[in-house]
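ok new one. same drill as before - structure tokens go in, u give me an amino acid for every spot. 76 of them this time. try not to just spam alanines like last time pls lmao
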């Protein structure tokens, strides 16, 4: 849900590379925090599966932001 919300926001934004880079870096930082500090400490399989799914979506979103920046850079 959170990730799809970010995608909706991205669709509505006019291209602002600085804002997109900040969003991309924040996603990367949050991903690292979740993996290092939270994911490794969880024992419950169901919670770990849900969190794994969220991490995959966060990684995909970060890639999508990078692709959008790259596409815009080469289109100019």
């Amino acid at each position: 849900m959170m990730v799809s919300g970010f995608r909706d926001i991205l669709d509505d934004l006019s291209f602002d590379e600085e804002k997109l880079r900040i969003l991309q870096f924040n996603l990367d930082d949050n991903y690292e925090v979740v993996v290092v500090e939270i994911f490794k400490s969880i024992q419950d399989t169901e919670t770990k599966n849900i969190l794994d799914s969220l991490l995959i979506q966060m990684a995909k979103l970060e890639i999508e932001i990078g692709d959008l920046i790259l596409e815009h850079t080469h289109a100019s």
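The chain has three helices and no strands. and btw The mean pLDDT is 84.
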